[in-house]
């Protein structure tokens, strides 16, 4: 198969009609703080959850770049739906990353995805700024190679919908002198967890990213993927998580920004000034704001394509992937907030009402600052890649 080029037109699964239908539900889900049940059913029926599963394993075989482009389109219709589905796509992306590099340890995930399983991401923990490098959750060995997990996970997107949950925890029991971060998967029907009904947020409401309390959720030996020493790691599994998560997350916020700009252009063409009698699209100040937003947005698409394209082409960047993908995520989420802000400034006071789509995008885009890598950790990562590590 030829190496994909960032200049190739990306293949699409989501039809315009499907996106229109999904967009029509977004305001209702947000208003009612309800799960995107009908969206998920439609996305499943369209084969979207199998987008990145290789064709020979029953999927559509989209590349990471193509999936990122599709996620941006979905986010333009319904940001919270895209964010929740994103966490499933991340796991498929990790499995694809390993599969393409000759590691079949997650091929079962690709096969289960092809058969309809939905994967969730149960990694985030309150106060854990180590993210993948450590955990507050206990991973208790069962003596047979499996683990029972005890701890609290926050921001567990797609809480009502996942059937398989990726989790991590610290095993400091097997060898206290050599603790290990254990990465594994538990099943919904296996029990040992409680999902709290606590998702009442400013934005991204339909994602229903509820707190998950693990109280003995068990992963058998064949679903334990890695036991990695705490701290920085170039294990392909860690690289796969980091690259897939950051790239696909960035695509969601890029889609929000793209939609906000389109709404602003539509609005300023429709509204007119009582002072001049002309459409606001003819106002020099408004044109400057629209131009500023468009210039900022134009710089993000090539970076998304390039970084995702390097993963697809299996470029061996090693630790360089941490810099490029963390930088992409921070640049996109920060710029997306600026673009939405400019769009609102151009569009008038009606955007302050809950019925306004732009007002909803303003709330949704704010969530970007809370996902890893945050601004501080990304700057630290980039500084280390340029300056080297801090002195002891």
Q: Give the overall form.
A: globular
- The whole-number mean of residue pLDDT values reads 95
Strand content: 5-15%
Write out the strand line-up for the largest beta sheet, numbering strands in chain order. Answer: 1-4-5-8
Order of helix and strand elements from N to C terminus: HHHHHEEEEEEEEHHHHHH
In helices, the fraction of residues equals 40-55%
Characterize the largest beta sheet: strand count, sense, and whether it forms a barrel: 4 strands, mixed
> CA-to-CA gap between the ends?
47 Å
Q: How many helices in DSSP terms? A: 11
How many extended strands?
8
Structural class: alpha+beta
Low-confidence stretches: none
What value does the Rg take, in angstroms?
21 Å
Q: What this model shows, in words?
A:
The protein is an alpha+beta fold and 392 residues long. It is 47% helix and 13% strand. It contains eleven helices and eight strands. The protein has helices at residues 16-32, 37-45, 64-77, 79-100, 107-114, 236-270, 284-298, 300-312, 320-347, 357-365, 375-387; strands at residues 119-122, 138-141, 147-156, 164-171, 180-187, 193-195, 210-219, 224-228. The strands form two sheets. Strands 1-4-5-8 form a four-stranded mixed beta sheet, with helices on one face. Strand 2 (138-141) and strand 3 (147-156) form a beta hairpin. The protein is globular and about 80 Å long. The model has no long low-confidence stretch (mean pLDDT 95).
